[in-house]
Amino acid sequence: MSSSSALVVMRGVTKRYRLGSGPTAATALRGLFSRGHFDEVEAVSKVDLELQPGQTVGLVGSNGAGKSTILRLLAEITPPTEGRIELRGRPSSLLDVGAGFHYELTGRENILFSGAIYGMTRAEIREKLPRIVEMAQVDRFLDTPMKRYSTGMILRLGIAIAMHVDADFMLIDEIISAADASFQRQLESRIGAYVRGGGAAIIASHELELLERLCHTAVHLDQGRVVRRGPARDVLDAYRADLDQKPDSEGVERKPVLSK
Questions:
Q1: What is the pLDDT of residues 162-178, one digit of tens each?
Q2: Among 3, 119, 212, 244, which one has the highest count of C-beta atoms within 10 angstroms of its own C-beta?
């Protein structure tokens, strides 16, 4: 039974993707005369997960383990193939931060535009704008078109906007380790303060030390399945031991499931 206080509940969640290109006129025509075969891959398989207020959960595993797929499911970017997902609160997704930026617009204009996409009112955005600018360290370039920003400036601004959404929990995918050391420390501090204040977060990363610093519990995924869960240090130590035994395990290909 799931706790009534849980912000996120996943029960038996599976996500399958069909391999290959999308349907064409030729494949549609062939389908009229025969039962076609196609390959599917289970990116996530029968996953159970909960997130409580004041908790940070780390997702760890090799490339293709299903970490990002879980976050995309929780962000409602894609629906599950099977199982149940309950979201009891408002998420802030730090996944493809900056993906919606318009590079001909200025930093200020992009803050207003992105804040509206996150559901903030114009008054909220204007009230938070000084703090967003300070965190992103783009004050000198606020009224400069974003096409002149460096990659680091764009990353910082995207993260800063997402961090100022009034959310009940955050979904974070690898972006912390992509930031420079100074901004990374600032971001870790803010996430820690956010969780201590009653927020919650799910973080997917290959940076095990980062997960150890930020997370209370961890979930080890392998080929879409949960193979281990528990206190973060215990799970991460066991994962390190697995890596020592299988040094070439990163990016192992998954066998497709043949479907009709």
A1: 999 999 999 999 887 77
A2: 212
Please say whether the beta carbons of 13 and 84 come within 8 A: yes
Domains of the chain: 1-89+168-260 (3.40.50.300), 92-166 (1.10.8)
pTM of the model: 0.83
3-class DSSP assignment, residue 86: strand
Query: What distance in Å separates the CA atoms of residue 199 and residue 167, rounded to the nearest whole number?
Result: 8
Cβ–Cβ < 8 Å for 176, 205: yes
Look at the alpha carbons of 190, 196, 44, 161 in this order and tell me if their dihedral is positive or negative.
negative
